[in-house]
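Input record (Table S2, row 1146):
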Amino acid sequence: MMTQETMNTAPLLEVQDLHVRFQSGGSLVDAVRGVSFDLGREKLAIVGESGSGKTTVLRCLAGQYNHWHGRLAINGEKLGRKLDKARCRKVQMVFQDPYGSLHSRHTVETALAEPLRIHGIGNISQRIDSILTKVGLPTSFRYRYPHQLSGGQRQRVAIARALILEPRILLLDEPTSALDVSVQAEILNLLADLRQKEGLTYLLVTHDLGVVAHLCDRVAVMQQGRIVDLLDCSSIVGAVPEHPYTRMLVEASRHYSREMVDAAQAA
Amino acid sequence: MSIFTSSGLSARRLTSLGHRLGIVAITLLGLLTLTFLIGRVMPLDPVLSIVGADADQSTYDQVYHQLGLDRPMYVQYFYYLRDLMHGDLGRALLSGNSVAADIARVFPATIELATIAILFGTCVGVPLGVFAATHRGRWGDQVVRVISLCGYSVPVFWFGMMGLIIFYAWLNWAGGAGRIDLAYDGLVESRTGMLLIDSALAGEWDVFWSAVKHITLPACILGLHSMAYIARMTRSFMLAQLSQEYIITARVKGLSEREVIWRHAFLNILVQLLTIVALAYGGLLEGAVLIETVFAWPGFGSYLVSSLLLGDMNAVMGCVLLIGIIFVSLNLIADALYQVFDPRTR
Amino acid sequence: MKKLPFLLAACALSVSLIGTIQAKTPADQLIVGMSMNNLLSLDPAGATGNDVLEINANLYDSLVELDPNDTHTVLPGLAESWTITPDNKSITFKIRKGVKFHSGNVLTAEDAAWSLQRVLKLNLALASGWKSYGFTAQNVDKQIRAVDPQTLVIDLPEPADPKLIIYTLGTSVSSVILDSKKVMQHQKDGDMGRAWLTTNEAGSGPFALNDWRQKDVLLMSRFDGYWRGAPKLRRVVLRHMTESQTLRLMLERGDIDVANGMSVPDVEAMKKNQNVRVESVKRGTVYYVAVSVKDPKFADKRVRLAIRNLIDYDGINKTVMPNYGVLHQRPIQSGLPATLPNPGYKLDVPAARKLLAEAGFPNGFKTTIRVLSDPPFINIATNLQATLALGGIDASVIPGTGNQVYGAMRDRQFEIIVGRGGGGAEPHPHSSLRALVYNPDNSNEAKLTNFQGWRTSFISPEINSLIEKAVLEQDAKKQIAMYQDIQKLYDEQVGAIQPISQMVDTVVLQKDLRNFKSHPASTTRWRDVFKQR
Ligand SMILES: Nc1ncnc2c1ncn2[C@@H]1O[C@H](COP(=O)(O)OP(=O)(O)OP(=O)(O)O)[C@@H](O)[C@H]1O
Ligand SMILES: [Mg+2]
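Output record (magnesium ion complex):
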């Protein structure tokens, strides 16, 4: 895997001049207006105010929208508008609310087995066991329904669900914002671990710069559908960002994020 | 789950069942009392219906007495309730038939009609609703909206008449009025009172086809309204589901759109939908006087209305009780469905 | 979605396959579409309404029958012959030998006596007519009796015209003869079989009842042992259908043979249809406008006369009444030798206004019209409302069911009623007058609710005594003259009930039906009916 990637000169993920426009009740909303970034093996975070278009960018990548303009590519291969099975195996997504993203009438097992079945992957039972272990859940949890799990456990299941197809890129849409602080730390550690073990590339959306500092190398700051700032994580901790919005974000999160990072390190 | 907690759970469920039955009993009693009171103050004289407008006073008084109408109202009510406790719905004032037997005679015709109607309504309404939801805002959605608007606002009587003219008189596809061609009447033994079932049981396929021919048109027209209702509800339920993240999850998993819709979204609205269908079905079981009139369908609706118009309160009370029981049981069934199908309530 | 056209095509195909089964009424069955809403009981002692008359006329036999072509001709039925004593006090019937009931029991004079006695003993709806002749539950065993198995004697308790009783025997549903043994087998709590007879029959008629599902269908089949010879039809099916347009469609498609109770527009449309025949028959009852004389306004003869002048007889009979009735203004039914020609009452607003002014109502008054909410009643009422308004009378229409309208009339709680009545089907002036005019005791306590005369509180001692005398008059010519005097008196005194139309009943039949003769007394008999195909 590693060798393949290093041989390939094209970046793993390429987003060029992405535009998305929604029509809602007669009025047009330009949710994304010309977003471009590359993603190599590093972890990129997207931060930004509510409604700035972060989720929309992720959904385009995950193949949920087909009315975008611009260029999306994985390994230099241009992505079509329609979601195909091949892309599903390369890109997976984890959502903000682990409860809403799991089907309430499906057991953990059903939820995990379904992608395997669709993609014609065998050894279903074994794979489920191993993925559950990987995300730190007892294998007996496979028979549970989402409502029988805690929030953190649910998010672990959601991550397991995303990872079971062994994607290269994991799109994380505020994966911890619905969780308690201590549980957030657990999940962040898990994600950090998995990244190392599985060689994953993350594209993380968050409001929270503390999370960014813990998990990512670079940060893209979005505002009103545009990337207004792109900086290294290290610069957040020490220096004062140039862009006023970034500065505001950094300041707002400084106190909170320290707490977070401490908790994560203690865990 | 330990034995302890599960037994605790079932005990709780038992008390809640008892509680619920109590509410049901009180509801039905209230319904009956109200009907009784309305019946007694209604300016319709059953005695006159029996003896005719030209009977002399001694005959009138005699029948009045025989029906027990000269007793004080609370005594009449007490006797009614006492008989009811013994499972006796009393006798229709006019025909002297047992009300229970009367209802047992007319109700199967209505069950048959309502069942086919609700099947039609569901089988057409659900796909339409799903189609509209998945094509939200596009022409498909608009078409479905127009269809359900028609279904809601169509004058059933007029539609029935047009149906008869087109499909019966003109195209000769449907049978005419009544449940069956008259030549077949009385050919099959009545076991359930539902001709489709009786004739199939007896293996009388000619009779069965005749019954099918006769029931299809009225049932479809009767089902139009349910169809519109079900389509609209399905659409809004589906829209609520389709905007949820688990749907995106399902798509990201690589499921085809059809699987996403039917196996994920639809599965989640199934119980809600069943409740809607059950209640619509309950409404149909009350009988549909207009359709029954146009198609000369000897059902529950016309029985209730003609009893009401003739002032036969015993028959009306029996009907009201039955309607009450139908609705209460459908509600209980809907609740039970929630319990069974929703893992969260387990 | 690509499959949709296929699905549609498949549906259309399967439906058209179903459609290949063609329906046409079987040659040996008579299929009648009619409203059975008022068919509550088949018991001859208690069943009201015309529908049951027709049914029982075919399940049972009566002692005599009236010729449908000329109701004055009395034809033998179960009675081969009858004699009236010269003093007009007794009738003796010779009962036919060898007549069997559907049960196989032999019909005797005892059955006949028992059947007629039963009517009075049960004292149900149909007893009223008999009681008006003076029969009572107490005297009936003495007055109506079997002398031997072949002889029935009816002694009149009060002086009356015996012809009238013979007419009643030929027209009333209570006059059919029951199988007394069979009925008594089904007696419960001394009810003389009342509960059982509500839904069963014990007759000797040309057809036997197979099944009656209320407000659904009534099936009868040929009685092979019928004494006149088995009828040609194997089966008669009465199907409950209330919707006129449905009846019409089924007639057009040939799925029913006879339609009763169709609406006027549908009847008119059917008149143009080559395959059907529209038959109208006059009945004994009249449509009328009645006022309550208990009301001080209408107690004034001038006001009643004004009302008489405010009815648009021509307009109503031309626009509302076709197929329901024909112009008739006399209290005695039309077509009888005693019936005077119509007096020619007309809508005359100035005359009415003048009368009202004289009576002290120059600006009219407010009143109410109670009426059945069905056609033609409601149409007559709205027409009347408009013409009353011309005279300054402001009448509001209160529609209701028959039960409500006639209930109010029986309680004497009304001002104006548009209704229908006029007694039995007996072709005798007395029958009409008894129902519409006669009022022997006007007190509220008398509760003579069966007399429409009493209900209107109109009382005329001269007319009452003339009615009582005329029915006893043995000389036919003198009797006719007396009845004509009564009509003149009624005209002069302005009776409370003003007839507008003689009732007409319309049936629509398939052309291939033979020997179907609608009977003016509703006793249409199907025993000779067959289909010419
Ligand atoms: N399906 C849609 N139809 C119409 N407008 C939409 C749709 N989805 C998103 N939008 C609009 O696009 C803009 C961007 O939405 P998006 O969900 O990408 O924001 P976000 O940055 O993820 O915000 P948050 O941090 O609150 O999740 C918003 O203004 C939103 O209202
Ligand atoms: Mg978002």
